[in-house]
Amino acid sequence: MTMPDHKNAGAESHVPEPGLDENRQSLRTFRSFRETQRTQRIARGLLALFFVAMALYTVRGFLPSLIWGGIFAIASWPLYVRARTRWHAATHQLLLPAAFTLGIALIFLVPVTLFGLEAARDAEGVLHLLNNARQSGMPVPQWIDHLPLGAQTLRTWWESHLQNPDDFSALLGSLRIGQSVKMTQQVGSQLAHRGILFIFSILTLFFLLKDGDSVIRQCLVVSRRAFGKRGERIALQIIASIHGTVAGLVLVGMGEGVVMGVAYLIAGAPHAFLFGVVTAVAAMIPFCAMIAIGIVATLLLIKGSAVIAIVIMLVGLAVIFLADHLVRPALIGGSTQLPFLWVLTGILGGAESWNLLGLFMGPAIMAVLHMLWRNWTRVRD
User: Fold this and answer.
1) What is the pTM for the complete model shown?
2) Which stretches within the chain are classed as H helix?
3) Handedness of CA 112, 117, 121, 126 (dihedral sign)
4) Bigger pLDDT: 329 or 197?
5) Per-residue DSSP letters for 195-262?
6) Which of 304, 326, 322 is nearest to 314 (CA)?
Protein backbone atom coordinates (compact mmCIF):
# COMPACT_ATOMS: atom_id res chain seq x y z
CA MET A 1 0.00 0.00 0.00
CA THR A 2 1.49 3.31 -1.04
CA MET A 3 0.96 6.70 0.58
CA PRO A 4 -0.43 9.57 -1.57
CA ASP A 5 2.07 12.02 -2.88
CA HIS A 6 1.13 15.35 -1.23
CA LYS A 7 3.35 17.38 -3.53
CA ASN A 8 1.70 16.00 -6.61
CA ALA A 9 -1.73 16.47 -5.06
CA GLY A 10 -1.01 20.15 -4.27
CA ALA A 11 0.28 20.69 -7.73
CA GLU A 12 -2.81 19.16 -9.26
CA SER A 13 -5.08 21.35 -7.10
CA HIS A 14 -3.51 24.57 -8.54
CA VAL A 15 -3.83 23.57 -12.19
CA PRO A 16 -6.07 26.19 -13.88
CA GLU A 17 -9.41 25.10 -15.15
CA PRO A 18 -9.70 24.52 -18.86
CA GLY A 19 -10.78 27.69 -20.76
CA LEU A 20 -9.96 30.18 -17.95
CA ASP A 21 -6.97 31.62 -19.80
CA GLU A 22 -9.09 31.99 -22.93
CA ASN A 23 -11.73 33.97 -20.97
CA ARG A 24 -9.14 36.29 -19.48
CA GLN A 25 -7.58 36.79 -22.87
CA SER A 26 -11.00 37.59 -24.38
CA LEU A 27 -11.72 40.08 -21.58
CA ARG A 28 -8.38 41.81 -22.14
CA THR A 29 -9.07 41.90 -25.85
CA PHE A 30 -12.54 43.38 -25.25
CA ARG A 31 -11.15 46.03 -22.89
CA SER A 32 -8.48 46.92 -25.39
CA PHE A 33 -11.12 47.19 -28.09
CA ARG A 34 -13.25 49.47 -25.89
CA GLU A 35 -10.27 51.68 -25.12
CA THR A 36 -9.47 51.88 -28.82
CA GLN A 37 -13.06 52.83 -29.60
CA ARG A 38 -13.05 55.48 -26.87
CA THR A 39 -9.79 56.91 -28.16
CA GLN A 40 -11.15 56.97 -31.70
CA ARG A 41 -14.35 58.73 -30.59
CA ILE A 42 -12.32 61.42 -28.82
CA ALA A 43 -10.07 61.78 -31.87
CA ARG A 44 -13.09 62.04 -34.20
CA GLY A 45 -14.71 64.62 -31.92
CA LEU A 46 -11.53 66.71 -31.82
CA LEU A 47 -11.16 66.41 -35.59
CA ALA A 48 -14.77 67.46 -36.11
CA LEU A 49 -14.32 70.46 -33.77
CA PHE A 50 -11.16 71.40 -35.63
CA PHE A 51 -12.88 71.43 -39.01
CA VAL A 52 -15.93 73.25 -37.60
CA ALA A 53 -13.60 75.93 -36.19
CA MET A 54 -11.75 76.13 -39.52
CA ALA A 55 -15.04 76.43 -41.42
CA LEU A 56 -16.28 79.21 -39.13
CA TYR A 57 -12.96 81.01 -39.50
CA THR A 58 -13.15 80.65 -43.29
CA VAL A 59 -16.67 82.09 -43.59
CA ARG A 60 -16.38 84.54 -40.68
CA GLY A 61 -16.89 87.50 -43.02
CA PHE A 62 -20.15 86.02 -44.32
CA LEU A 63 -21.57 84.73 -41.05
CA PRO A 64 -23.85 87.79 -40.68
CA SER A 65 -25.18 87.12 -44.19
CA LEU A 66 -25.87 83.48 -43.34
CA ILE A 67 -27.65 84.50 -40.14
CA TRP A 68 -29.69 87.13 -41.98
CA GLY A 69 -30.65 84.55 -44.60
CA GLY A 70 -31.77 82.21 -41.82
CA ILE A 71 -33.82 84.96 -40.18
CA PHE A 72 -35.50 85.81 -43.50
CA ALA A 73 -36.24 82.13 -44.10
CA ILE A 74 -37.70 81.56 -40.62
CA ALA A 75 -39.83 84.70 -40.88
CA SER A 76 -41.23 83.84 -44.33
CA TRP A 77 -41.50 80.05 -43.92
CA PRO A 78 -45.14 79.89 -42.66
CA LEU A 79 -46.36 82.04 -45.56
CA TYR A 80 -44.20 80.05 -47.97
CA VAL A 81 -45.71 76.77 -46.77
CA ARG A 82 -49.24 78.14 -47.28
CA ALA A 83 -48.38 79.25 -50.80
CA ARG A 84 -46.74 75.90 -51.54
CA THR A 85 -49.91 74.00 -50.65
CA ARG A 86 -51.87 76.00 -53.25
CA TRP A 87 -49.41 75.97 -56.11
CA HIS A 88 -48.64 73.06 -58.37
CA ALA A 89 -45.89 70.71 -57.18
CA ALA A 90 -43.73 71.46 -60.22
CA THR A 91 -43.31 75.06 -59.08
CA HIS A 92 -41.93 74.16 -55.66
CA GLN A 93 -38.37 73.62 -56.79
CA LEU A 94 -37.49 76.95 -58.38
CA LEU A 95 -40.36 79.31 -59.19
CA LEU A 96 -41.92 79.63 -55.75
CA PRO A 97 -38.62 80.05 -53.83
CA ALA A 98 -37.46 82.54 -56.46
CA ALA A 99 -40.72 84.52 -56.20
CA PHE A 100 -40.52 84.71 -52.41
CA THR A 101 -36.83 85.62 -52.53
CA LEU A 102 -37.48 88.37 -55.06
CA GLY A 103 -40.38 89.72 -52.99
CA ILE A 104 -38.31 89.91 -49.80
CA ALA A 105 -35.43 91.52 -51.70
CA LEU A 106 -37.77 94.17 -53.13
CA ILE A 107 -39.03 94.98 -49.63
CA PHE A 108 -35.52 96.25 -48.89
CA LEU A 109 -34.41 97.42 -52.33
CA VAL A 110 -37.38 99.63 -53.21
CA PRO A 111 -37.14 101.95 -50.15
CA VAL A 112 -33.34 102.05 -50.38
CA THR A 113 -33.50 102.92 -54.09
CA LEU A 114 -36.06 105.66 -53.54
CA PHE A 115 -34.03 106.94 -50.62
CA GLY A 116 -30.89 107.01 -52.77
CA LEU A 117 -32.66 108.84 -55.62
CA GLU A 118 -34.05 111.40 -53.20
CA ALA A 119 -30.63 111.87 -51.58
CA ALA A 120 -28.96 112.22 -55.00
CA ARG A 121 -31.52 114.84 -56.01
CA ASP A 122 -30.90 116.74 -52.79
CA ALA A 123 -27.14 116.41 -53.23
CA GLU A 124 -27.42 117.95 -56.68
CA GLY A 125 -29.35 120.87 -55.22
CA VAL A 126 -26.77 121.29 -52.45
CA LEU A 127 -23.91 121.40 -54.99
CA HIS A 128 -25.78 124.00 -57.04
CA LEU A 129 -26.33 126.04 -53.87
CA LEU A 130 -22.63 125.83 -52.98
CA ASN A 131 -21.55 127.00 -56.44
CA ASN A 132 -23.88 129.97 -56.21
CA ALA A 133 -22.63 130.76 -52.70
CA ARG A 134 -19.01 130.76 -53.89
CA GLN A 135 -19.90 133.48 -56.40
CA SER A 136 -22.36 135.68 -54.53
CA GLY A 137 -22.45 134.39 -50.94
CA MET A 138 -25.44 133.13 -48.99
CA PRO A 139 -27.98 135.77 -47.88
CA VAL A 140 -29.48 135.49 -44.41
CA PRO A 141 -32.64 133.36 -44.65
CA GLN A 142 -35.91 134.72 -43.33
CA TRP A 143 -36.57 131.82 -40.96
CA ILE A 144 -33.75 132.99 -38.66
CA ASP A 145 -35.83 135.99 -37.62
CA HIS A 146 -38.69 133.66 -36.59
CA LEU A 147 -36.60 131.61 -34.16
CA PRO A 148 -37.79 131.97 -30.56
CA LEU A 149 -34.23 131.98 -29.17
CA GLY A 150 -30.80 132.99 -30.51
CA ALA A 151 -32.06 134.70 -33.64
CA GLN A 152 -29.74 137.74 -33.36
CA THR A 153 -26.68 135.62 -32.52
CA LEU A 154 -27.26 133.30 -35.47
CA ARG A 155 -27.85 136.27 -37.80
CA THR A 156 -24.56 137.87 -36.72
CA TRP A 157 -22.64 134.62 -37.29
CA TRP A 158 -24.27 134.11 -40.70
CA GLU A 159 -23.40 137.63 -41.84
CA SER A 160 -19.79 137.15 -40.70
CA HIS A 161 -19.16 133.73 -42.28
CA LEU A 162 -21.64 133.04 -45.08
CA GLN A 163 -22.98 136.27 -46.56
CA ASN A 164 -19.66 137.39 -48.08
CA PRO A 165 -18.37 135.12 -50.94
CA ASP A 166 -14.75 135.35 -49.72
CA ASP A 167 -15.71 134.39 -46.17
CA PHE A 168 -17.79 131.48 -47.47
CA SER A 169 -14.89 130.18 -49.61
CA ALA A 170 -12.55 130.44 -46.62
CA LEU A 171 -15.03 128.47 -44.52
CA LEU A 172 -15.20 125.73 -47.14
CA GLY A 173 -11.40 125.61 -47.30
CA SER A 174 -11.21 125.07 -43.55
CA LEU A 175 -13.42 122.00 -43.80
CA ARG A 176 -10.58 119.92 -45.34
CA ILE A 177 -12.14 118.90 -48.61
CA GLY A 178 -9.50 116.19 -49.13
CA GLN A 179 -10.46 114.51 -45.89
CA SER A 180 -14.10 114.68 -46.93
CA VAL A 181 -13.27 113.01 -50.26
CA LYS A 182 -11.40 110.25 -48.43
CA MET A 183 -14.36 109.75 -46.12
CA THR A 184 -16.67 109.57 -49.14
CA GLN A 185 -14.50 106.86 -50.66
CA GLN A 186 -14.62 104.87 -47.42
CA VAL A 187 -18.41 105.21 -47.30
CA GLY A 188 -18.62 104.01 -50.91
CA SER A 189 -16.43 101.00 -50.13
CA GLN A 190 -18.60 100.12 -47.14
CA LEU A 191 -21.76 100.42 -49.22
CA ALA A 192 -20.30 98.07 -51.84
CA HIS A 193 -19.32 95.57 -49.14
CA ARG A 194 -22.78 95.75 -47.55
CA GLY A 195 -24.33 95.22 -50.97
CA ILE A 196 -22.33 92.03 -51.48
CA LEU A 197 -23.37 90.76 -48.05
CA PHE A 198 -27.02 91.52 -48.85
CA ILE A 199 -26.80 89.58 -52.13
CA PHE A 200 -25.29 86.63 -50.26
CA SER A 201 -28.12 86.82 -47.69
CA ILE A 202 -30.69 86.71 -50.50
CA LEU A 203 -28.95 83.70 -52.06
CA THR A 204 -28.94 81.98 -48.68
CA LEU A 205 -32.66 82.68 -48.35
CA PHE A 206 -33.36 81.16 -51.77
CA PHE A 207 -31.57 77.90 -51.02
CA LEU A 208 -33.09 77.63 -47.55
CA LEU A 209 -36.57 77.98 -49.02
CA LYS A 210 -35.78 75.59 -51.86
CA ASP A 211 -34.36 72.87 -49.60
CA GLY A 212 -36.26 73.85 -46.46
CA ASP A 213 -37.81 70.43 -45.75
CA SER A 214 -34.45 68.69 -46.00
CA VAL A 215 -32.76 71.31 -43.81
CA ILE A 216 -35.48 71.00 -41.14
CA ARG A 217 -35.23 67.20 -41.15
CA GLN A 218 -31.45 67.27 -40.79
CA CYS A 219 -31.60 69.86 -38.00
CA LEU A 220 -34.12 67.71 -36.11
CA VAL A 221 -31.89 64.64 -36.41
CA VAL A 222 -28.85 66.56 -35.14
CA SER A 223 -30.87 68.15 -32.33
CA ARG A 224 -32.28 64.82 -31.12
CA ARG A 225 -28.88 63.15 -31.18
CA ALA A 226 -27.12 66.00 -29.42
CA PHE A 227 -29.70 67.37 -26.98
CA GLY A 228 -32.75 65.13 -27.02
CA LYS A 229 -36.29 66.52 -27.02
CA ARG A 230 -35.26 69.59 -25.01
CA GLY A 231 -33.18 70.74 -27.95
CA GLU A 232 -36.34 70.89 -30.06
CA ARG A 233 -38.04 73.02 -27.40
CA ILE A 234 -35.15 75.48 -27.49
CA ALA A 235 -35.30 75.60 -31.30
CA LEU A 236 -39.06 76.20 -31.24
CA GLN A 237 -38.57 79.00 -28.71
CA ILE A 238 -35.97 80.65 -30.96
CA ILE A 239 -38.26 80.35 -34.00
CA ALA A 240 -41.21 81.82 -32.08
CA SER A 241 -39.01 84.66 -30.89
CA ILE A 242 -37.88 85.47 -34.44
CA HIS A 243 -41.48 85.47 -35.68
CA GLY A 244 -42.53 87.77 -32.86
CA THR A 245 -39.51 90.04 -33.34
CA VAL A 246 -40.12 90.39 -37.07
CA ALA A 247 -43.74 91.31 -36.41
CA GLY A 248 -42.93 93.53 -33.43
CA LEU A 249 -39.95 95.37 -34.89
CA VAL A 250 -40.20 95.34 -38.68
CA LEU A 251 -43.95 95.47 -39.20
CA VAL A 252 -44.59 97.86 -36.33
CA GLY A 253 -41.68 100.03 -37.46
CA MET A 254 -43.08 100.15 -41.00
CA GLY A 255 -46.47 101.04 -39.57
CA GLU A 256 -44.98 103.91 -37.57
CA GLY A 257 -43.17 105.12 -40.68
CA VAL A 258 -46.37 105.08 -42.75
CA VAL A 259 -48.39 106.92 -40.08
CA MET A 260 -45.71 109.55 -39.50
CA GLY A 261 -45.04 109.87 -43.25
CA VAL A 262 -48.69 110.74 -43.80
CA ALA A 263 -48.48 113.20 -40.90
CA TYR A 264 -45.36 114.79 -42.44
CA LEU A 265 -47.13 115.10 -45.77
CA ILE A 266 -50.21 116.74 -44.24
CA ALA A 267 -48.01 119.09 -42.19
CA GLY A 268 -46.12 120.17 -45.29
CA ALA A 269 -42.74 118.97 -43.99
CA PRO A 270 -39.87 118.92 -46.52
CA HIS A 271 -39.10 115.50 -48.03
CA ALA A 272 -42.04 113.80 -46.33
CA PHE A 273 -41.42 110.45 -48.03
CA LEU A 274 -37.72 110.48 -47.24
CA PHE A 275 -38.30 111.22 -43.57
CA GLY A 276 -41.09 108.63 -43.49
CA VAL A 277 -38.58 105.97 -44.55
CA VAL A 278 -36.05 107.24 -42.00
CA THR A 279 -38.71 107.11 -39.29
CA ALA A 280 -39.65 103.54 -40.25
CA VAL A 281 -36.02 102.39 -40.04
CA ALA A 282 -35.40 104.22 -36.78
CA ALA A 283 -38.66 102.89 -35.31
CA MET A 284 -37.32 99.32 -35.49
CA ILE A 285 -35.30 100.22 -32.39
CA PRO A 286 -37.57 101.19 -29.49
CA PHE A 287 -37.77 104.94 -28.82
CA CYS A 288 -35.35 105.79 -31.68
CA ALA A 289 -38.11 107.05 -33.98
CA MET A 290 -38.21 110.17 -31.83
CA ILE A 291 -34.90 111.27 -33.36
CA ALA A 292 -36.37 111.40 -36.88
CA ILE A 293 -39.55 113.03 -35.60
CA GLY A 294 -37.49 115.65 -33.77
CA ILE A 295 -35.57 116.47 -36.96
CA VAL A 296 -38.81 116.97 -38.90
CA ALA A 297 -40.24 119.12 -36.12
CA THR A 298 -37.06 121.23 -36.14
CA LEU A 299 -37.32 121.73 -39.91
CA LEU A 300 -40.94 122.82 -39.52
CA LEU A 301 -39.90 125.19 -36.74
CA ILE A 302 -37.24 126.67 -39.02
CA LYS A 303 -39.89 127.26 -41.67
CA GLY A 304 -41.84 129.26 -39.10
CA SER A 305 -44.56 126.66 -38.46
CA ALA A 306 -44.18 126.42 -34.70
CA VAL A 307 -47.71 125.14 -34.03
CA ILE A 308 -47.44 122.43 -36.68
CA ALA A 309 -44.05 121.40 -35.28
CA ILE A 310 -45.57 120.97 -31.83
CA VAL A 311 -48.45 118.94 -33.31
CA ILE A 312 -45.98 116.65 -35.11
CA MET A 313 -44.09 116.12 -31.85
CA LEU A 314 -47.29 115.26 -29.98
CA VAL A 315 -48.47 112.89 -32.70
CA GLY A 316 -45.06 111.22 -32.76
CA LEU A 317 -45.04 110.79 -28.98
CA ALA A 318 -48.52 109.22 -29.09
CA VAL A 319 -47.57 106.82 -31.91
CA ILE A 320 -44.32 105.78 -30.21
CA PHE A 321 -46.05 105.31 -26.85
CA LEU A 322 -48.74 103.05 -28.32
CA ALA A 323 -46.29 101.07 -30.44
CA ASP A 324 -43.56 100.56 -27.84
CA HIS A 325 -45.76 100.01 -24.78
CA LEU A 326 -48.74 98.12 -26.18
CA VAL A 327 -48.26 96.65 -29.65
CA ARG A 328 -44.64 95.50 -29.50
CA PRO A 329 -44.78 93.77 -26.10
CA ALA A 330 -47.92 91.92 -27.20
CA LEU A 331 -46.36 90.73 -30.49
CA ILE A 332 -42.87 89.84 -29.24
CA GLY A 333 -43.62 88.75 -25.69
CA GLY A 334 -46.95 87.12 -26.51
CA SER A 335 -45.41 84.56 -28.85
CA THR A 336 -42.74 83.53 -26.33
CA GLN A 337 -44.36 84.47 -22.98
CA LEU A 338 -41.51 86.92 -22.52
CA PRO A 339 -41.97 89.87 -20.11
CA PHE A 340 -41.58 93.35 -21.56
CA LEU A 341 -38.39 94.04 -19.59
CA TRP A 342 -36.77 90.95 -21.08
CA VAL A 343 -37.91 92.01 -24.56
CA LEU A 344 -36.54 95.53 -24.17
CA THR A 345 -33.26 94.28 -22.70
CA GLY A 346 -32.82 91.80 -25.53
CA ILE A 347 -33.50 94.40 -28.24
CA LEU A 348 -31.31 97.17 -26.84
CA GLY A 349 -28.54 94.85 -25.65
CA GLY A 350 -28.53 92.97 -28.94
CA ALA A 351 -28.38 96.19 -30.94
CA GLU A 352 -25.42 97.37 -28.88
CA SER A 353 -23.58 94.05 -29.18
CA TRP A 354 -24.34 93.00 -32.78
CA ASN A 355 -25.69 96.17 -34.40
CA LEU A 356 -28.77 95.62 -36.56
CA LEU A 357 -28.46 91.84 -36.42
CA GLY A 358 -28.76 92.01 -32.65
CA LEU A 359 -32.33 93.29 -32.95
CA PHE A 360 -33.31 89.71 -33.78
CA MET A 361 -30.60 87.73 -31.98
CA GLY A 362 -31.08 89.57 -28.69
CA PRO A 363 -34.77 88.68 -28.16
CA ALA A 364 -34.12 85.09 -29.31
CA ILE A 365 -31.34 84.66 -26.74
CA MET A 366 -33.45 86.23 -24.00
CA ALA A 367 -36.40 83.99 -24.94
CA VAL A 368 -34.28 80.84 -24.53
CA LEU A 369 -32.84 82.15 -21.26
CA HIS A 370 -36.33 82.92 -19.97
CA MET A 371 -37.51 79.40 -20.89
CA LEU A 372 -34.55 77.85 -19.07
CA TRP A 373 -35.18 80.11 -16.07
CA ARG A 374 -38.83 79.00 -15.89
CA ASN A 375 -37.79 75.37 -16.07
CA TRP A 376 -35.19 75.75 -13.32
CA THR A 377 -37.48 77.72 -10.99
CA ARG A 378 -40.55 75.56 -11.49
CA VAL A 379 -41.76 73.98 -8.25
CA ARG A 380 -41.88 70.19 -8.59
CA ASP A 381 -43.65 67.72 -6.29
Assistant:
1) 0.69
2) 6-13, 20-58, 63-86, 95-136, 151-161, 165-173, 177-210, 212-227, 229-245, 252-267, 272-282, 289-302, 306-322, 328, 334-336, 340-354, 358-377
3) positive
4) 197
5) HHHHHHHHHHHHHHHHTHHHHHHHHHHHHHHHHTHHHHHHHHHHHHHHHHHIIIIIIHHHHHHHHHHH
6) 322
